[in-house]
Write a structure and sequence with these properties.
- This protein is of the alpha+beta class.
- It folds into four domains: 148 residues, Neurolysin, domain 3 (Orthogonal Bundle), CATH 1.10.1370; 65 residues, no CATH class; 166 residues, Neurolysin, domain 3 (Orthogonal Bundle), CATH 1.10.1370.10; 181 residues, Neurolysin, domain 3 (Orthogonal Bundle).
- Strand 4 and strand 5 form a beta hairpin.
Length: 683
């Protein structure tokens, strides 16, 4: 009954923020079942129309349909990623095949596809504006890409594959979360954590207390292979234990083992690609991205891999020289890299990034850094709404207004790590902006910062500062996109373009007016010294051989899995050997530089939306680096520059071809030279 289920009635809260306080886990599945049925009725109403398809009797009601389902889905998946209690995980497991089946029922509907195809075939005859025209093109392309043109037998098999994949990807995520929690490293003595700050040790003690291990210290694992503490821990054995735990996730041959899971995922994706007429899953994915083909992706990755590996080799020699100079007799290993990198950084640049944390107090970075830059560039302002509760007590809600005082939307920040939150950092939307539906955006940023003991300040690493700016770039994209049709709302753009706005937003971290505003010592109030700022700028290409190599290695592993035939994927029973062969192929089999993600904990590609698309970060960075050059050439952090970037890129959402939007902003296509220069890869 709608009266008994808060998910089946409109939220009473501003901007349609879900009333999470009234929602219980048991409400979700009944609400989804009703939403599936309602969406199906809405689609049936379109296909029952006897007259020939028009934009008004097909596309407009299609865009209006599924609103209830979308609202419930965004409400649920926000929670399932950020606060996945056991009850929520049970709902997600039950929901996965139901959601896949429903999606297929809509995307593969023959009558609906006929109506969309008819409009697409007559596109030049129809009096449509640019957004409407692009809407027809995208719906036709996406339905055809999903398999709407297949015969009935092929559709049956396709649906089976999609439902099984939905279950497997959910299992992969569940296994990873469980193994990450189980493998958190327990230390019995604070001496083993020598080198960490008082705040970091406090956070480890608090994590132990939360697990009932009073008196011990727990270091929780990050999603990526490395860990921020590896650069500071003086105890080599402590470093080894942390990295070994991280790299063993999902491959311990226990109930959380992801080897067989990911192999079946790769096999089914390969079969699906062949069913749809593509040579591989990588061909299938890239055919509907700006890259266009795996060949274009491989060409870029191989071009970058050679100088990246060369630079990593030089960096390795420098690190070994430091070890030798210290009188040590061991050879550099992967768990030593970050620690000795900081020693080299101090030697070459007189810079200790681990000592900078007191200047990066989280609240000040947020208010006087992230928000301040957005206000300077776009004129928007932020007011915390303590009267509005999100899905978890740690999640804070801010109302965002334009410069003229008009309401823009809500921004939710969930900063801290917890056992029920998946690893990494991300942005997602809870409510999509749409003129057709009369809705404004509600967007979320999630990070995984260690929470200090009560009363202690949250001090960020430089990497965490970067992540906060990065994810807020996604949030700005979600807030600024102003479209009529929800299909184009927010970050609904090509996957290999979506990282572009977030990467651009990182540029303001070192911008003088922004840095001076937020980089203030938490105890003394002193600004970050000018000479330190100069050293940070001078060292921007430092360790880029490692950073680029670990990223490219993960990107190549992604491409390797998703370039296989079904038979090849099924035969790849040794995950470690498969990765080693793939990395040798591109020249990135560097024992001391492990991939940023290995297969068994590579959530981006086996449970997220980046399968055959992890290359997107470096692909988007070509545009990002070129855009940073434009800002520098045009006086940087100004309102006029912000307005141009907002209007011509962020504001169009997915309603325009992204490369066309980029040309409109930049006046030309992007060039790769700024990226090569930034990463120290120029000849």
């Amino acid at each position: 009954m709608a009266s008994e289920n808060p998910l089946l009635t409109a939220s009473p809260l501003p901007y349609g923020l879900p009333d999470y306080g009234a929602i219980e886990p048991g409400h979700y599945l009944p609400a989804f079942e009703e939403a599936f049925a309602q969406h199906r009725r809405e689609i049936d109403a379109i296909t029952r129309v006897r007259s020939m398809p028009t934009f008004e009797n097909t596309m407009t009601p299609l865009e209006s349909s599924g609103e209830l389902l979308g609202t419930i889905a965004r409400t649920f998946y926000t929670v399932s990623s950020a606060d996945a209690t056991e009850q929520i995980q049970e709902v997600e497991e039950a929901l996965a095949p139901l959601m896949a089946a429903h999606h297929d029922a809509i995307q593969l509907d023959a009558q609906l596809f006929w109506r969309v195809k008819t409009l697409h075939d007559r596109l030049d005859e129809l009096p449509l504006d640019a957004e409407q025209r692009y809407l027809v093109q995208r719906h036709f392309r996406e339905m055809a890409h999903a398999g709407a043109g297949l015969d009935d037998a092929a559709k049956v098999r396709l649906t089976q594959i999609n439902q099984r994949l939905s279950t497997l990807t959910t299992t992969f995520e569940k296994n990873l979360l469980a193994d990450t929690n189980e493998l958190a490293v327990v230390f019995d003595d604070a001496v083993e954590l020598d080198g960490l700050t008082e705040g970091e040790i406090s956070a480890a003690a608090q994590a132990a207390t939360d697990r009932g291990l009073d008196g011990s210290f727990v270091v929780t694992l990050t999603l990526f292979t490395g860990h921020p503490y590896l650069s500071s821990l003086t105890d080599r054995e402590s470093r080894r234990r942390i990295l070994e735990a991280s790299r063993s996730r999902g491959r311990r041959q226990n109930e959380n083992d992801n080897g067989a899971v990911l192999r079946e995922i790769a096999t089914l994706r390969a079969e699906r690609a062949q069913l749809l007429g593509y040579d591989s899953h990588a061909h299938y994915v890239t055919s509907d991205e700006t890259a266009g083909s795996p060949d274009a992706v491989h060409s870029l990755l191989r071009r970058l891999a050679v100088p990246a590996a060369r630079n990593a080799g030089r960096e390795r020699e420098a690190l070994q020289a430091i070890i030798d100079a210290d009188g040590e007799t061991f050879a550099l290993e992967a768990h030593d890299w970050a620690f000795y990198t900081e020693k080299v950084r101090r030697a070459e640049y007189d810079l200790d990034t681990s000592a900078l944390r007191p200047w990066f107090e989280a609240e000040r970075v947020l208010q006087q850094g992230v928000f301040h830059a957005a206000t300077m560039l776009y004129g928007i302002t932020f007011t915390e709404r303590r009267d509005l509760a999100a899905y978890h007590p740690d999640a804070r809600v801010f109302e965002v207004h334009n410069e003229d005082g008009s309401a823009l939307g809500l921004f939710v920040l969930d900063l801290y790590t917890r056992d029920t939150k998946r690893g990494g950092a991300w942005m997602n939307s809870i409510v999509l902006q749409s003129r057709l539906r009369g809705t404004s955006p509600v967007v979320v940023n999630n990070l995984n910062v260690s929470k200090p003991a009560p009363g202690r300040p949250t001090l960020l690493t430089l990497d965490e500062v970067t992540t906060l700016f990065h994810e807020f770039g996604h949030a700005l994209h979600g807030l600024f996109a102003t479209v009529t049709y929800p299909h184009f709302a927010g970050t609904n753009v090509f996957r290999d373009f979506v990282e572009f706005p977030s990467q651009v937003n990182e540029m303001w971290i070192y911008w003088p007016e922004v840095l001076a505003s937020y980089a203030v010592h938490v105890d003394t109030g002193e600004p970050l010294p000018a000479d330190v700022i100069e050293k940070l700028t001078a060292s921007e290409t430092f360790n880029q051989g490692f950073a680029t190599s670990e990223y490219l290695a993960a990107s190549w592993i992604d491409q390797a899995w998703h370039s296989l035939s079904p038979e090849q994927a099924a035969a790849a029973t040794d995950v470690v050997a498969f990765e080693q062969a793939a990395l040798a192929d591109i020249g990135l089999d560097i024992d001391v530089v492990p991939p940023r993600y290995s297969s068994t904990y590579f959530a981006h590609i086996f449970s997220g939306g980046y399968s055959a698309g992890y290359y997107s970060y470096i692909w988007s960075e070509v545009l990002d680096a070129d855009t940073v050059e434009w800002f520098r050439e045009n006086d940087g952090l100004t309102r006029s520059n912000g307005d141009r970037f907002r209007e011509r890129l962020l504001g169009v959402g997915g309603s325009k071809d992204p490369l066309e939007a980029y040309r409109d902003f930049r006046g030309r296509d992007a060039t790769i030279e700024p990226l090569l220069e930034r990463r120290g890869l120029s000849d």
